[in-house]
Amino acid sequence: MLSSDPFSPRPSSGGGLSAYGWDTKLERSFTSHRAAGLIPARIIGVDRGSCDVITETGLLRAGTSLVGTSDPVSAPCTGDWAALRSGHEPELTALLPRRSVIVRSSASRSSHGQALAANIDTAALVVSIEVPLNLGRIERLLALAWESGALPVIVLTKADQSADPSTATAELTQLAPGVEIITTSAANGDGLELLTAALTGTVVLLGPSGAGKSTLGNALLGTQVLVTGAVRAQDGKGRHTTVRRQMVPLPNGGVLIDTPGLRGIGLFDADDGLQQVFAEIEQLAQECRFSDCGHDSEPGCAVQAAIAAGEVGERRLDSYRKLQRENAWATSRSDARLRAQREDHRKAITRSLRETYSFRDQQRQS
């Protein structure tokens, strides 16, 4: 039986797990788990050591110790599909392979990444136009989305609070060619019908606190399910009213994942995402005279020529360089951690062998 909690899932017309994205492909991949007496479940919220999951029969609380890992990227997260051992104390026994996952650099600035949501079809990047656009932050969000394998959609919120929404739309059209940009107002309903049509499958809302993610989510859900809060008038920043990622079915099909506001949007192993976001610079770089061109003062630099001609902005190149450096740093930290782990493993094996040989020598001498 489903919980009466307002955050608990409400089955849509599809019923059962199909309302949460379960399909014949997932069913085929689950054959061996069913043969072992396990049942499929989708994680809708995670706490330390346990999680809320939706199953064919309803909502359950399950342990995660059997699928726990020291790597936050591989740890269970909202959106994961899992094999569940039911009973008195339900426990996840395995996670199904992810088709997409949104990963950012850990907020602790460690060498780990952090999975924000898994098996996402559409990443809705929520941007308030009540305040000036933060283009660098939007580029970061786009890189995360493209790297994940999900389709990004930029959602401009609070259009009723902006004197000229079209200016923001035009600026973002240049920043993100090919990405759908939808201007909305949850207050008067503008753009919501168009947005509903654009958001398909499993949808995650990404953006900073105060951007209007939860308000937008409630508008899409048609009810006040997600907690909202006020923002500061001077900078448009809000408090973290959403404290964990949570999944709720959408009335017209698909599911919605609301996330806490992202204070830090660090990149983690996002080479492909950066190439997609800065495609025009990547393409121009191929025309530079030197393959290792730094796009500074080298002769025959196609990027600098485009800047001089007004085809590419200097800010755009600066942002590209900054995010490349950040991504390279995070990748090098991750590589260093993996090397250290391999070295620790090698040393442990060496110690074990030495102890074994020492024991054998003692046995022979005795």
CATH topology of the domain at 113-258: Rossmann fold
Give the proportion of residues in helices.
Answer: 25-40%
Distance between the termini: 67 Å
Please provide the ordered H/E string of secondary-structure elements.
HHEEEEEEEEHEHEHEHEEHHHH
Q: How large is the radius of gyration?
A: 24 Å
Low-confidence stretches: 1-14, 229-243
Number of strands: 13
Query: Mean pLDDT, as a whole number?
Result: 84
CATH architecture classification of the domain at 113-258: 3-Layer(aba) Sandwich
Provide the spatial order of strands within the biggest beta sheet.
10-9-8-11-13-12
CATH superfamily of the domain at 113-258: P-loop containing nucleotide triphosphate hydrolases
Instruction: Please tell me what the overall shape is.
Output: flat
Q: How does the major sheet shape up?
A: 6 strands, mixed
Using the coordinates above, name the CATH class of the domain at 113-258: Alpha Beta
Quaternary structure: single chain
> Percent of residues in beta strands?
15-25%
Number of helices: 10
Structural category: alpha/beta
Domain EngC GTPase: 118-263
Keywords: Cytoplasm, GTP-binding, Hydrolase, Metal-binding, Nucleotide-binding, Ribosome biogenesis, RNA-binding, rRNA-binding, Zinc
Subcellular location: Cytoplasm
Pfam families: RsgA_GTPase (PF03193)
